[in-house]
């Protein structure tokens, strides 16, 4: 695990999460919708998990809808709002640097007669709120902008966007998959109507997540069948996954988030200082002042990112060249293209390093030393 630096793609399970899931799998096998004792016990565990998660956001328990992860949450929010407000308007706004779960959903809605504005970002990958203000129209019904970018770690101006939308009827959705558990998020204070989260980014299990939906937001169900989740998401709940997710959330207290921030900031400085001291030519892709310290997107001029990934993999170290959901493609990062242009060499010479649970200072220095050797072999 010490050589794993791709926590932006997925994270290892905490031992406590595994223990909790084993308990549910062996002791609480009832269906939460059943009215007998086994079902009631399962329903109680389900609601306890919902309470833990709602408390982490300062929202009402019933405003949490359990899903299969970030992609379902994004799809449910975006398609649901768009279709529910079709008569009021068919204009949607997002950014050019969103996760594919948002971008591909927007592309789908364009085939359904909706118009989508994709806001640009600057060379630091940052969104200008003034661009959003100019793009807003009377027929804009949804604004979907990620909380933190999965490739650069940039924190987008969510608070300012929420303030802007207070005077506009558009629904505000944010994909918070990369930000949740790393920064304090208070949807009601920020003016967020819908918020998507995935458990496997916070040392929880894969295949489970949740969608926060404010009481004021109209959102039809995309899945139809039973009456689970107050008729908002049909299907028997994944109780072991949900309880595992809640256990992971329980460890992400404000104090822990603050401690993690300091630790990963230290890791980043250790690594980049070692690169600089060794004479490596490098640059940061992102906004130094407004980003998560967990994620470093580094450009090494003249060095193929595929080559670095392969050679580090042979050394037992895992990094990435972008989002795991697009890593199987040969296409360059759409995020870096939005920042530097489609033909920029930066897209072929940049890697993403993402710190997380299990990483140590010793392992970070080992990664830095390996990078120094591999990069200087090419740059010299």
Portion in beta strands: 5-15%
Q: In one word, what is the shape?
A: globular
Report the major sheet: 7 strands, mixed
Can you list the strand order of the major beta sheet? 1-7-6-5-4-2-3
| Gap from first CA to last CA | 31 Å
Over all CA atoms, what is the radius of gyration? 21 Å
Indicate the CATH architecture of the largest domain: 3-Layer(aba) Sandwich
Structural class: alpha/beta
Instruction: Tell me, rounded to a whole number, the average pLDDT.
Output: 95
Give me the number of helical elements. 13
Summed up, the domain count is 2
Give a short synopsis of this structure:
The chain has 380 residues and is an alpha/beta fold.
Notes on the protein architecture:
This protein is α/β, with parallel strands linked by helices. It has two domains: 15-250, Type I PLP-dependent aspartate aminotransferase-like (Major domain) (Aspartate Aminotransferase, domain 2), CATH 3.40.640.10; 254-379, Aspartate Aminotransferase, domain 1 (Alpha-Beta Complex), CATH 3.90.1150.10. Helices cover 41% and strands 12% of the residues. The protein is built from 13 helices and ten strands. The strands form two sheets. Strands 1-7-6-5-4-2-3 form a seven-stranded mixed β-sheet, sandwiched between helices. Strand 4, helix 6 and strand 5 (171-175) form a beta-alpha-beta unit. Helix 3 runs parallel beside helix 4 (100-110) and helix 10 (254-277) packs parallel to helix 13. The longest helix has 24 residues, at 254-277. The protein is globular and about 70 Å long. Belongs to the class-V pyridoxal-phosphate-dependent aminotransferase family. NifS/IscS subfamily. It catalyses: (sulfur carrier)-H + L-cysteine = (sulfur carrier)-SH + L-alanine. Its cofactor is pyridoxal 5'-phosphate.
